[in-house]
Design goal:
about 40% helix; about 30% strand; alpha+beta; single chain; about 140 residues; 6 strands
Length: about 140
C-alpha cells in the first residue's frame, strides 16, 4: 500500500487541502472523478484511513466492488487496481502500453487478484487510467 500525504486520522482530506497537496495534478484527479460520475452514475467515493503508516486514501466503488484506490501524495497521486484473471487477460491483450502490461504481469497475485499501482502525475495519465477503469468495469 502506498503512503498518503494525509496521515492525520482526525483530518479527512477535503477539496482545499487536496488541491494544495496535489498542485496541478488536482486537474487529473477531478477529470477521473468526472469520468466516473458521467459514465457510471451509481459510483460512490469513500475516504478510508488505513492507519498512521499509510494515511488516507479514496476508494471508488460500484456497489460493494472497489474499482480504483486513489492515494494522494505530494504533487501527484497513485491509482491502484486489483484485477482478477479475466481483467488481467483483457489488459494483457489490450492496447495498453507495454510498460503497464509489464506492471500488471509482474504484480503479486493474491486471492482477490493482482494488485498494482500507477503514479498519476500529469494529464497524459488520464487515458491510461480510463482504459484501466474500462477493463475493470467490464470484467
Amino acid at each position: 500500500m502506498a503512503l498518503s500525504i494525509f496521515t492525520d486520522k482526525s483530518e479527512k482530506p477535503n477539496e482545499k487541502n487536496l488541491a494544495d497537496k496535489l498542485s496541478e495534478t488536482i486537474n487529473v484527479w477531478k477529470r477521473i472523478r468526472d469520468y466516473f460520475h458521467q459514465n457510471y452514475p451509481k459510483i460512490t467515493e469513500e475516504w478510508r484511513f488505513s492507519g498512521e503508516k499509510y494515511g488516507w486514501s479514496m476508494r471508488v466503488k460500484s456497489n460493494k466492488r472497489t474499482i480504483l484506490y486513489c492515494t494522494p501524495c505530494e504533487n501527484y497521486f497513485k491509482g491502484a487496481f486489483v484485477y482478477g484473471n479475466k481483467a488481467t487477460e483483457a489488459a494483457l491483450s489490450s492496447n495498453l502500453s507495454e510498460e503497464i502490461k509489464r506492471l500488471i504481469q509482474s504484480a503479486k497475485v493474491y486471492a482477490e487478484g493482482r494488485g498494482f499501482r500507477i503514479d498519476i502525475n500529469n494529464i497524459d495519465s488520464f487515458e491510461n487510467i480510463k482504459s484501466l477503469i474500462l477493463i475493470k468495469m467490464n470484467n
